[in-house]
Amino acid sequence: MNQSAQLLRKKKKTILENWVKNQLADESLREDLISNDELRRQSDELLDKLLIAIENGNYDNIYTSEFEQVTDILSDISVTRARQGFSPREVTLYILSLKQAITDVLEKEHRDNPAILYKEILQFNKLIDSLSIHTFETYLRGREEVILRQTDEINEISTPVIRVWDGILALPIIGTLDSSRTQIVMENLLQEIVNTGSNIAILDISGVPAVDSLVAQHLIKTVSATRLMGAECIISGIRPEIAQTIVHLGIDLSNIKTKASLSSALQLAFSMLALEVKKKNTNTSVKILR
Question: Which residues sit opposite 163 in a β-bridge?
Fold first, then answer.
């Protein structure tokens, strides 16, 4: 076994105590996200595998089989902390704080031999730096997964299909429409038409800030797909400025039923289904006549 590895193996308990102490001393440590016991368990497991990995004197390449367990543990910790909401600084400091714990032990052991002390501190610093880069890269991948999942969830929530009446669906659209979101709108709407057997769908674009040729094309495709499913589509919420924009762009919506508001679109849907809604004479309740 490498002499440095032997020394650190003997001093493992001291290194672990110093490392955990360094982490707990950091004011930015998120005690609400991880307990002291879990922090110690993770540190103990990682340190144990790290001391095994360096037994043959490899301090330069962490992407060998010797470091496989070390990088796996670090990856799990990084991804888990990314999902828990740790910042990049907090995750990187976790592994970097090990550097000081090892340096303290080496300084005591080689205080009489500065040359050896310098050499060993240098090689361990390079090793910990490599591990910190791996930690940061893995953390970023974990954050990207979280962001992609949240984006999918937001898209799902922001495109609800509401059954406002028997046979009538409404889909209020809020925010900017792009190709991916339009695809979700279309899929959700078509699926709900199948699920409910509805034959009228209202696309309300009151919450869409602007309409350009791309958005208009997306809407036309959605209307066409709805018709192929045997349903009729009404576009509502067309504000005056949006109407002017559509005219200036030369977009033809003459074959599509449009209304200025959701209520007027609902009235049109009632008339298309031969429904009449009116107040009773005796009270304010609503009566539906076919």
Answer: 169
